[in-house]
Amino acid sequence: MSTDLSELAGRPVIIGGGAAGLMTALHLAPEPVVLLSKSPLGAEASSMWAQGGLAAAVGDDDDPVLHLQDTLAAGAGLCDEAAARRIVAAAPAAVERLAQLGVAFDRRADGRWRLGLEAAHGRKRIVHATGDGTGREIMRALIAAVRRCASVTLLEGVEARRLIVADNAIQGVVAVRGDEPLVLTTTRVVIATGGIGGLFLDSTNPSGCFGQGLALAARAGAVLSDLEFVQFHPTAFDGPSRPLPLLTEAIRGDGAVLIDESGTRFMADEPGAELAPRDVVARAVWRRRAQGHRVFLDARDRPGRDFVARYPVISAFCRMAGIDPTIDPIPVRPAVHYHMGGIAVDAMGRSTVDGLWACGEVSRTGLHGANRLASNSLMEAIVCAQWVGKSVAGTPHGLTKPGRVAELPPASDPSAVRPLLSQALGVLRERPTMAAAVRSLLPLAEGAGPAADPAMVGLMMSVAAHAREESRGGHFRSDCPDTLALARPSSFTLSEAIAVARDIAATQLPSFRSALP
């Protein structure tokens, strides 16, 4: 059933053409590497859409210790402090590295970085490029660098469908290009496929990002962690377009406020007001809307006339919707934006499967905990790529024994999963709807149809959320609103999650708090 690409045998394979995958490929140079992207580079990468920027303690009044404190506070007790300290300490050098690669970051007249403020940051430390086009500019530079790099073999339009594993070790990748099946023989694979927003009806992510990397790792037997923690951006543009256009947090950092249709500023008395942690702001917007109100971002006074110059991308789609942000409040609503959970990895990005690494949003490094601090995601992808690249390069190509490959799985279709997860794993959650989602997702996940992989990822997320009988960070249960004194991550394999899901589907037990190891 396959085409054996013998000339590429033994090379590391990177799955994903976003910032994490591209940066990992560059760090591996001059070692030959294969990079798979299911679309033309950048076409379906969340990195391309990033507006907020990259967080790094590069200001005169800042320090990585202060950046760490803000990261830990946002993470609500679930950050790995050692991992977070290491990552934020490396952020300033990562900014310099990107600048060397040609990223045109915004600078002041004196040549220093022009820094912005975002929610839950105690200092201005957000480095931007072209105002609200940071992700696009970073991707432009990285794509150009990768295309110039002779050691990188790009396979665009190639989608990974399964990993070949024997004795808990990677042996190859089963992929498809058009209708042509491919097998790449390798003992080293990096998953850098992005997030899970495409599993929900309302998301700011590209619709093609629906957890494929998590499915690959889970079916390979890897441990996944903290899948219940989904970050909802509180200010997605409330209109008919899907995915929902994002209104970056930097606008609130510039002084914009949240109001309802009567002009009431309903966040004014909250600690931090509009710059409270994202989960707090998202719940406030959600509740206001649930009370029958519409919610708007009011930028008429601040940034006011500077809006168009500061946020050209947002200004453009506002104009297309008939809105002038200098005179009109902008309608907003929460939408799925980022996944804090992912493939459990160590300090070098290694998963629990030998020869399998993960980088970027698909990984769980311990940096974000229960709630990502704004603009820490691009930073994490860029910083961790160097360590992943070093680890992959330092791991020699092993002997492969791929054996017989099963029939090629069909292309995934998440459409049946989106309404289930949108209802069960929204801003506010409760046990009955999560249990109902588990019962609906289980037969899909155990089937062999196009919904199988998306349903499997959704099932694992739902099981984790059902098991966490507390509210913490991006996971808020209206039936368990308190935060438990002991913060512990949730970690499990696919087989463990399936076993718990069958129990949930079979009966309504009084508690699943201890169901996961």
TrEMBL record:
Pathway: Cofactor biosynthesis; NAD(+) biosynthesis; iminoaspartate from L-aspartate (oxidase route): step 1/1. Keywords: FAD, Flavoprotein, Oxidoreductase, Pyridine nucleotide biosynthesis. It is an enzyme of class 1 (oxidoreductase). Its cofactor is FAD. GO terms for biological process: 'de novo' NAD+ biosynthetic process from L-aspartate. It catalyses: L-aspartate + O2 = iminosuccinate + H2O2. Residues 457-482 form the Fumarate reductase/succinate dehydrogenase flavoprotein-like C-terminal domain. One of its GO terms (molecular function) is L-aspartate oxidase activity. Residues 13-378 form the FAD-dependent oxidoreductase 2 FAD-binding domain. SUPFAM superfamilies: FAD/NAD(P)-binding domain, Succinate dehydrogenase/fumarate reductase flavoprotein C-terminal domain, Succinate dehydrogenase/fumarate reductase flavoprotein, catalytic domain. Its EC number is 1.4.3.16. It comes from the Bacteria. InterPro entries: FAD-dep_OxRdtase_2_FAD-bd, FAD/NAD-bd_sf, Fum_R/Succ_DH_flav-like_C_sf, Fum_Rdtase/Succ_DH_flav-like_C, NadB, Succ_DH/fumarate_Rdtase_cat_sf. NCBIfam families: PRK07512.1. Belongs to the FAD-dependent oxidoreductase 2 family. NadB subfamily. This is L-aspartate oxidase. It comes from Bradyrhizobium oligotrophicum S58.
